[in-house]
Specification:
Layout: E1 2-5, E2 8-11, E3 14-16, E4 19-24, E5 27-33, E6 43-46, E7 51-54, E8 56-61, E9 63-64, E10 67-68, H1 74-85, E11 89-96, H2 101-115, E12 123-130, H3 152-159, E13 166-171, H4 178-187, E14 191-194, H5 201-210, E15 214-215, H6 231-238, E16 243-247, H7 255-265, E17 270-273, E18 285-289, E19 292-297, E20 300-302, H8 315-324, H9 329-336, H10 338-343, E21 361-364, E22 370-375, E23 378-379
Parallel strand pairs: 1-6, 2-7, 8-11, 11-12, 12-13, 13-14, 14-15, 15-16, 16-17
Antiparallel strand pairs: 1-4, 2-3, 4-5, 7-21, 9-10, 18-19, 19-20, 21-22, 22-23
Helix pairs in contact: 5-6, 8-9
């Protein structure tokens, strides 16, 4: 057993002192006032007055440390899991790119096999299919030749015979078949994410009404807000049911736009993602994302035409960036933990310091740098 003591713990939406958290194996089993466990046979983890948070949950990440989900290799998934755990991310969705159906299936098979055993590091909770059901007019860094219509038959072609591991899928709502696919996904507990779209305000509203209540990297690769045609951005701002993803690297989105989004949506309708690619954690240079060449310069990942191609962000940096631009820390923490867990149906065991939840725990210093991370009660070795 482990006993976390002497901390400012993020519990129920605020920083709380004078509490101790007892962990037995992989679960949080009790939270009581300081000094309640004098007889407990537990190893003491003295947090020394600094911050204790749930482990971060990244539901949109393609790779890091030289590895990519599309490698379809166990060692690549392990590499990513180990690297991101060192930055406080304890759970993630392995996010695919728009490539051939066979290549996507290969990646899904690899992820499914990886999830069947305990490898340590950050835990993969499932797959985020970012493509191939996108708009060719808002493809971003995705390969246009592999974009296909979001039909039920095409979804089955990708997932039939694969373990039930798809948790999130990004779709352009204006594409033929999208509004029929979304209810089919909902029946299977797959979250439909609206993104990579050139939809009008009305088309976006139709997608939301059909059940597309999650938004892939808000602002990016979608129709912007205009006072006569509010576009996707306007429809999403106008609809309280939508939860948005933000890439808080201060490159994809201006700080003022980040503040506006959080002010409009609040921390329980905002998810901080990395959208990280294989160059995350590595030096500037030449890389690939979904088979397309990417140049990283000054930490920015771009294609030859200047299109942003994912990021080199980590969630601990996203936390500090949001605090730096004026968002209160107690509002940023749920964007990294509770809210993403809820969006993929994992909030009953991930994303909180609560009894019965997995013991995914971060110790952060006074400047919110990660000092130690525990995944399911095990200390991550950096």
């Amino acid at each position: 057993m482990l006993l976390f003591t002497n901390s400012k713990a993020y519990i129920d939406g605020s920083w709380k002192t004078g509490l101790e958290i007892l962990v037995d194996q992989d679960k949080i089993v009790d939270i009581k006032p300081q000094g309640s466990y004098k007889e407990a046979q537990a190893k003491i983890v003295d947090v020394k007055g600094t911050f204790l948070t749930p482990g971060f949950v990244d539901i949109h990440i393609h790779g890091s440390n030289g590895a990519d989900v599309m490698d379809a290799k166990e060692e690549s998934l392990q590499n990513i899991s180990n690297y991101i755990a060192g930055n406080g991310t304890t759970s993630w969705l392995a996010t695919t790119m728009t490539v051939s159906i066979n290549e996507i299936r290969d990646s899904l098979h690899a992820v499914g096999k990886y999830m069947d055993s305990d490898h340590g590091g950050a835990q993969i909770l499932g797959v985020h299919l970012e493509g191939p059901f996108l708009s060719p007019l808002a493809k971003g860094a995705h390969a246009e030749e592999h974009i296909i219509l979001p039909t039920i038959d095409n979804y089955k072609a990708i997932t039939d015979g694969i373990p039930d591991i798809v948790r999130l899928i990004t779709i352009a709502p204006e594409q033929e078949g999208a509004l029929e696919l979304v209810p089919y996904l909902k029946e299977r507990r797959v979250t439909a994410s609206l993104g990579h779209t050139k939809c009008t305000y009305q088309q976006c509203c139709m997608g939301i009404e059909a059940g597309m209540n999650h938004v892939c990297h808000f602002y990016n690769a979608m129709t912007p807000l205009n006072h006569r045609e509010p576009g996707a951005v306007g429809a999403i701002f106008d609809n309280d049911s939508t939860t948005i993803e933000l890439i808080a690297d201060l490159v994809h989105i201006h700080p003022a736009a980040l503040r506006l989004a959080v002010k409009a949506k609040g921390p329980h309708k905002t998810v901080l993602i990395t959208d990280a690619m294989s160059a995350a954690g590595l030096a500037d240079g030449e890389y690939e994302l979904g088979g397309l060449p990417v140049t990283v310069k000054n930490g920015e990942a771009r294609q030859d035409d200047g299109t942003l191609a994912g990021s080199t962000l980590s969630q601990d940096v996203a936390l500090r960036n949001m605090i730096k631009i004026g968002i209160a820390s107690e509002d940023v923490i749920p964007m990294l933990t509770e809210t993403p867990a809820r969006e993929i149906g994992a909030d009953h065991y991930k994303g909180k310091l609560a009894v019965g939840h997995d013991a995914d725990i971060n110790i952060l210093d006074e400047e919110f740098f990660v000092q130690s991370t525990y995944t399911q009660g095990k200390l991550v070795k950096k």
